[in-house]
Write a structure and sequence with these properties.
The complex is a heterodimer of chains A (about 325) and B (about 375).
Chain A (H helix, E strand, L loop, with lengths): L12 E6 L5 H13 L4 E6 L5 H5 L10 E5 L5 E6 L2 H13 L2 H9 L2 H8 L1 H17 L11 E5 L6 H5 L1 H6 L6 H13 L4 E7 L3 H16 L4 E9 L6 H8 L5 H10 L5 H33 L5 E5 L7 H13 L4
Parallel strand pairs in A: 1-5, 1-6, 2-4, 2-5, 6-7, 7-8
Antiparallel strand pairs in A: 3-4
Chain B lengths: L1 H8 L6 H6 L5 E5 L6 H14 L3 E6 L4 H6 L6 E9 L5 E6 L2 H12 L2 H9 L1 H8 L4 H16 L4 E5 L8 H14 L1 H11 L11 H14 L1 H33 L3 E7 L3 H16 L4 E9 L9 H14 L3 H30 L5 E5 L8 H11 L3
Parallel strand pairs in B: 1-5, 1-6, 2-4, 2-5, 6-7, 7-8
Antiparallel strand pairs in B: 3-4
The chains are: A alpha/beta (about 325), B alpha/beta (about 375).
Organism (chain B): Nonomuraea montanisoli
Protein name (chain B): ArsA family ATPase
GO molecular function (chain B): ATP binding; ATP hydrolysis activity
Chain lengths: ~325, ~375
């Protein structure tokens, strides 16, 4: 893979996490498109069985099978996989022990149900195991099959436990195959080939959770990646106008004159519309102040930050490509 | 014709005060996708109920730090703490669920001391009782059952865990049942029942294959730990199941009101739809839908299209830059309002009889009781 001078050269596994409602799956999908741009092959993995990828790309539910779902700008393919722990277990048995039939019998008996209920750490090892296998996989030519793998991971509150599989199964399996498997997974996840990205909004709770999540991740020796600030509302209003609005001194008269000039309203009507619009400006200005504080707070994490615009019409396929473009121009892919 | 169309899209208003004022309402369950403000809604409902004379307790699971602080909660604590007293005898209590302690207490209540010790020190138990998925849902329901049985509060408001799916907690009791009835459990508990002989010797030919696979997959030591754990748990299984079933019935009882919480976004509204359908299937009483963080536009008489055209006009003439920027801002806002409206319309047309209340977006998160009170007022203003 030739270098293309992005912030994450050499990273093959991009783990994307975020608090619920921040658009984690959307950002993961856009990142996969951005990484695939220019003729690369990228796998987008989902692990919570929500079929979020299928919904974003407007596809029928994804099976447990790597299949091509999108073509990236200027060539390049995005494949997707919805990992099901049960199927991952069968894979694992077959791959390492050549036991497919025994695996089916285990499934029938509810062993997977059991294992995931009693020890969710097992479930995480199976799921991360499948993902890291795709990262390591090489084709017949000896080259890696995927240039990059993007994992739409569990939310921020669970991410460290989810990735810290060795720790999670340590109490259960000190030796034996599960331990070996989790060591293998851990080798990939803790390497410089992995980056864990956080998706947040410029709001207090998601920002706080992001900062907590980053601290927790670092403590566990896992590699923090970048911070994607999602749904940023942009405005051309000058700083001075916003400052005035916050202090209650927004120039409503000038606004009314502008409305008249634009032929939108006359006389008293223009004043009324200007008043209403000024209300919107004041609210926006107040939020801008708070957002500024949240940006400052995020800068403490000392990670690269990327800002993605709020899409007026919501996230559809076109919007996804727009976000991917934004990710590329900012150097995240 | 036009009127009929309009009324079809307008939902029935949700009367929150009627629900919290009804002494027959004993449990309110707030559920919905992650990140939609469930915990805030639960806390605001609790406070409003207390201010209107109820003795309410809010059971929260994993609240954001500042929201917890707004109710004076500083750590995980399985005991409800008094938050505030109100005129007319109303009181508000709140607690944060300590999942592990709740689980430990169930074990201690159902097993003799020796067996309880065996279970509590088993690595499988430790993994199970401190993990975040599944157990949290079950423990939240267990705690709800305990609070209800104690009868110390006349209203319990419960916030459901931040599951990957809003439906997880409904499935928890059933999953537990399936888990306990599974053939695998019976396989593992077989040695205890057969006087200590190996489970696998008792089994038919087909199971030899499974035994081999299990040993390969888990390793001999893990299998042994697992077997010890399951055998020890065997004794308390009956109690477990019974409690899970009781709690499930409690949720179906007329004194319970489910409040589905959503934000006006596609995923959250879709989850809300699933939830409404699921509650109906389970014959659980739905009170209505709360849509949080809804935006409005004070200048809504000016459409997005006219606003954008005027901005473009001013920009091309190079005049009134400030007005042009304000019009751009307004255009974005109108588009947002329209999109949020569309997302809600899907829900309303699919579930026209479900009462709805909208809570407008606030610029700041809730930090104190005054903030919660304000949310409570908005909740009651449908």
């Amino acid at each position: 893979m030739e270098s293309r001078d992005t912030d994450w050269d050499g990273v093959r596994l991009h783990v994307v996490t975020g608090k619920g409602g921040t658009g984690k799956t959307t950002v993961a999908a856009a990142l996969a498109l951005a990484l695939a741009a220019g003729g690369r092959k990228v796998l987008l993995v989902e692990v919570e069985g929500r079929q979020g990828i299928a919904q974003i790309f407007d596809l029928p539910p994804l099976p447990y099978e790597e299949r091509k779902i999108a073509v990236a700008p200027s060539g390049g393919d995005v494949y997707a996989l919805s990992v099901d722990p049960e199927e991952a277990m069968l894979d694992y048995l077959e791959m390492f022990y050549g036991m497919r039939r025994a695996g089916r019998a285990l499934t029938k008996m509810g062993v997977v149900d059991f294992a995931t209920t009693v020890a969710p750490g097992f479930r995480d090892v199976l799921v991360t195991g499948k993902t890291t296998e795709a990262v390591r996989r090489r084709g017949k030519n000896g080259k890696r099959v995927y240039d990059a793998v993007v994992l739409d991971a569990p939310p921020t509150g669970r991410i460290t436990r989810f990735l810290n599989v060795t720790q999670e199964v340590a109490g259960l399996a000190r030796v034996g195959p599960i331990k070996n498997h989790s060591d293998l997974v851990s080798g990939v996840v803790k390497s410089p080939e992995t980056a864990v990205h956080f998706v947040t909004l410029l709001e207090e709770m998601p920002v706080q959770e992001t900062l907590d999540g980053i601290a927790e991740l670092r403590e566990a020796g896992l590699p923090a990646g970048g911070v994607f600030i999602n749904m940023v509302r942009e405005s051309q209003l000058p700083r001075t106008a916003l400052d005035k609005a916050v202090k209650g001194g927004f120039d409503v008269t000038e606004l009314a004159l502008g409305l008249k000039a634009a032929g939108l309203a006359d006389g008293a009507d223009a004043d009324a519309v200007a008043e209403a619009l000024a209300g919107e400006v004041v609210e926006y200005a107040h939020r801008a102040v708070l957002e500024h504080e949240e940006r400052e707070a995020l800068s403490e994490a000392a990670l690269p930050r990327y800002e993605l615009p709020l899409l007026a019409d919501g996230v559809d396929l076109a919007g996804l490509y727009e976000l991917a473009e934004s990710i590329r121009t900012q150097g995240a892919a | 014709m036009k009127d009929a169309k309009r009324s079809a899209a307008r939902p029935v208003p949700l009367d929150i005060d009627a629900i919290i004022d009804d002494p027959g309402t004993r449990i309110i369950v707030c559920c919905g996708a992650g990140g939609v403000g469930k915990t805030t809604t639960a806390a605001a409902l609790g406070l409003r109920a207390a201010e209107r004379g109820r003795c309410a307790v809010v059971l929260t699971v994993d609240p954001a730090r500042r929201l917890a602080q707004s109710m004076g909660l500083t750590e995980l604590d399985n005991t409800p703490r008094l938050v505030s007293r109100h005129e007319g005898g109303g009181q508000l209590y709140a607690m944060m669920l300590d999942m592990k302690r709740t689980f430990d207490e169930i074990i201690e209540a159902h097993a003799d001391p020796e067996r309880a010790r065996q279970i509590l020190s088993n690595p499988f138990y430790q993994s199970l009782s401190s993990s975040f998925s599944g157990t949290q849902e079950y423990m939240a329901m267990e705690k709800l059952g305990q609070l209800r049985r104690s009868d110390e509060w006349d209203l319990i408001v419960v916030d459901t865990p931040p599951s990957r799916s809003a439906l997880d907690f409904l499935d928890a009791p059933e999953r537990l049942g399936r888990f306990l009835d599974g053939r695998f459990i019976r396989l593992l508990t077989a040695p205890a029942k057969a006087g200590g002989r190996s489970a696998f010797k008792l089994l038919n030919a087909g199971f030899g294959l499974v035994a081999g696979a299990m040993t390969k997959l888990l390793g001999a030591q893990v299998l042994k730990d697992l077997q010890t754990f399951v055998s020890a748990l065997d004794a308390v299984f009956g109690g477990f199941r019974q409690r899970a079933e009781l709690t499930y019935k409690l949720l179906q009882a007329p004194g319970t009101a489910f409040v589905v919480v959503a934000a006006p976004e596609r995923d959250a509204m879709r989850e809300a739809s699933y939830f409404v359908e699921r509650l109906a299937e389970e014959r659980m009483p739905l009170a209505g839908l709360v849509v949080n963080r809804v935006h409005d536009a004070p200048a809504n008489g000016l459409s997005a299209a006219r606003s954008a055209a005027a901005a473009e006009d001013l920009e091309s003439r190079g005049e009134h830059e400030l007005t042009a920027a304000v019009l751009r801002l307004h255009t974005g806002r109108m588009q947002l309002v329209a999109r949020e409206h569309r997302e809600q319309e899907h829900f309303v047309s699919a579930h026209p009889t479900v009462p709805v209340v909208q809570v407008r977006a606030m610029s700041e998160d809730v930090h104190d009781l005054a903030g919660l009170r304000q949310i409570g007022e908005l909740l009651a203003s449908a």
